[in-house]
UniProtKB/TrEMBL annotation:
Keyword RNA-binding appears in the UniProt entry: yes
Spans annotated as Disordered: 72-116
A Pfam family annotated for this UniProt entry: RRM_1
Gly residues bias (residue ranges): 95-116
SMART domains membership: RRM
Domain named RRM: residues: 1-79
SUPFAM superfamilies recorded: RNA-binding domain, RBD
Protein name: RNA recognition motif-containing protein
Record PROSITE patterns: RRM
Molecular function GO terms recorded: RNA binding
Composition skew (Basic and acidic residues), residue ranges: 77-87
Source species of the chain: Flavobacterium cauense R2A-7
Keywords: RNA-binding
Length: 116
């Protein structure tokens, strides 16, 4: 079972997180998510446990526990449904002066109607 662990202290490492879950059963993998530019923890991660009953016990007992002064959130991780990935709007037709491709700066271009 894949388990989401949130509100982690930024100082916790994967070995410490593994140890917290290993009390309940065999841990297959641990991954703390980090910022790709700074390498700093984003404060959440995932733990994979083979045995669902052991994983459920870990969820029940660790959800709401205090780790490093923070109350962590632990629950079963559900995969994102296909097609619900984040997308960015690349439509550049808007802007503070509204204006499609006629950006014109402060020259009265766009949809301002020359009200300056």
């Amino acid at each position: 079972m894949n388990i989401f662990v949130g509100s982690l202290p930024f100082s916790i490492d994967e070995a410490d997180l593994r140890d917290s879950f290993a009390v309940y059963g065999e841990v297959n993998s641990v991954k703390i998510i980090t910022d790709k530019f700074t390498g700093r923890s984003k404060g959440f991660g995932f733990v994979e446990m083979e045995n669902d009953a052991e994983a459920q016990k870990a969820i029940e007992e660790l959800n709401g526990a205090t780790v490093g002064g923070r109350t962590i959130v632990v629950n079963k991780s559900e995969p994102k449904p296909e097609g619900e990935r984040r997308s960015f709007n690349n439509n550049r037709s808007g802007g503070s002066y509204g204006g499609g491709n006629n950006r014109g700066g402060n020259s009265g271009g766009g949809n301002r109607g020359g009200r300056y």
